[in-house]
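ok so dumb question maybe but i'm new to this and my supervisor (M.) told me to 'just get the structure for GNAT family N-acetyltransferase' and walked off. so i did the thing. is this what she meant?? sequence i used:
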Amino acid sequence: MVFLRSVGFPERESILAGRRIYLRAPAAHDYVPWAALREESRSFLKPWEPRWPEDDLSRASFRRRLRRYAREMREDKAYPFFLFKADDGCLVGGATLSNIRRGVAQSCSLGYWMGAPFAGQGFMSEAVRLLVPHAFSRLRLHRVEAACLPHNAASITLLQNAGFQREGYARRYLCIDGRWEDHVLFARISDDPDPDLIPAEALNAEDPGSGIREKEAL
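this is what came out, is it supposed to look like this??
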């Protein structure tokens, strides 16, 4: 993993460069590829996300989104990233470290989305492996939390393979596609073992308590 200083952003918004992808803060010139990818992926993303506003893909809405991102980064509340393929700079998805809590908590929430044409190719797995060390080392957080729908086997596999531990089950936790949905809760803390040092057979083992057979990660 390589950290590169992003022009125009403070050090905490550095580009995160991996083997096949890199992550950076969203910018105004990302609007066209972002809107196109989100529109193309609408039916794919709909079951997993809050209901989109009517004007969600408009340029005006994207400008408002960027203003909110800038304010949240300034206030140390959230750090959004877009994911790009390293070979051609193609936008493939997004991820955010949000709900940052300082003081005695030093924690945040991890959320992500992947464009439909790029799902199942391991891009998000690589992104999470870049973001978690960034949260611990550069943002000096102690804990990264994540939540997913109980039937989202791909996301469950992704989180477990990235070293997250299943911690609980929250009833009607988030409003997804217009309905309050239960979520499985995961977390990784700064002194948890590095998953890249854990034998692959242990990472890929099915969790006997989940009732869900693990599938290919995002």
